Amino acid sequence: MKQTIKAVSLCAVFGLSSLAGTSVRADQLDNIKAAGALKCGVGSQYKPFSFVQDPKSRKFVGYDVDVCEAIAAKIGVKPELVFITGATRVTDLQSGRTDIALANLTHTPERAQLVDFSDNYFASDVKVMVPASSSVKNFADLRGKRMAGISGSQHEVKVPKVITGVDLKVFPSPANAFLALEQGKVESMVGDETSLVGLIGNKRDKWRILDQPVDTQQIGIGVRKGETRVQAAVNDTLNALEKSGKAAQIFDHWFGKDSEVGLKRSFTFGPYKQP
What we know:
Order of helices and strands: HHEEEHEHEHEEHEHEHEEHH
Largest sheet: 9 strands, mixed
Radius of gyration: 23 Å
Number of strands: 11
Strand content: 15-25%
Shape: globular
């Protein structure tokens, strides 16, 4: 009888262990809801995507901030900005430091092996900026000259394929790269056109952007691999923003007719298109 009771007890223990092992694991969306906050990876000096507009309030605003707030509202939690760099966008997402990655994350095949992407929420040509007084007129004139790029932005890959003989030096953020250009440490800077125009601000007489693009970027929001419910929540938000006209309003406020940038929106929120 004792052996029987012991066997039943062991079966009960192993049975409970088996049930525990097969219980449904709470996925990332459940964890976000439980925490009550969506951790959005954004740049700390990335005008007009995310930046401090009023030094007194120290409140961060921008295109990415508005999108983050919309996604958080869709999920039913508070938005939490986590500051990242171009080099850490993917690793911060993988490690759990962030829940989603914004900060102008271009959709590339290499990155798609590491993270999942939302639909496109931005698109921009990559261009080169020089001082207005520079003798540089085209890519050929950049041979042998120093150029500032952004770490983790694919500039190290794209630029050498298009511009021969340029000396590319990468910096942690667009603001750092622009500072190097302002200080004369480099003769040019490469970046997405919207960011370059944002950096120029009202000093358009001092800088000039070359017409020829280095590349055209499709930009999505990074999501941790396999987190399909988070990806769906992001895509549902983007789709709703586009249908309601709010997406165009956000663009116009930070990049378009209502901004100092003054660009025309040439894209809509939607699925990634194979180049």
